[in-house]
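Q: I have 165 residues here and want to know how they pack in 3D. Can you give me a structure?
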Amino acid sequence: MPEGFRVGLGHDTHRLVAGKALVLGGVTVPHDHGLAGHSDADIVLHALTDALLGAAGLGDIGELFPDTDNRWAGAESGIFVREAVRLLAESNWRVGNVDVIIHAEKPKLSAHKQAIRRQVAALLEIPEERVNIKAKTGEKVGPVGRGEAMECHVVALIQSQKNSA
């Protein structure tokens, strides 16, 4: 890989629970269950934060925003992404592109992918065409396939801002 580029991988999984809003990529998606977690449990933004931090060698979401800290109880996860982007800029990195896979048996996410893409691009301050959102089912296998959980994987490319025009 040419000097000045790095790749990070992020992953997150949360259980589904009744009585909580389902938030994916900063977008509230209509569903009878939401994700359990200390913050808003947005698996997309948690995995994205980890991918960005990992690419820059800046640790992980649990180090910066531990679930043992009550400041983050119920927090909107866009805070985590914005902080990761700020830390990248401080370290002379910028986001190149991101590729996101959301694993969920239900609800079907095709109608929500564009809104998630738009929100993620806005949080990252990059054009929408540099964000890709995919949705996959669990094919009735494992916790995702049984509708007990959702998970997300994100790959992020970051680019050095040093000596860039």
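Q: Anything worth noting?
A: The chain has a mean pLDDT of 93. The CA atoms of residues 1 and 7 lie 10 Å apart.
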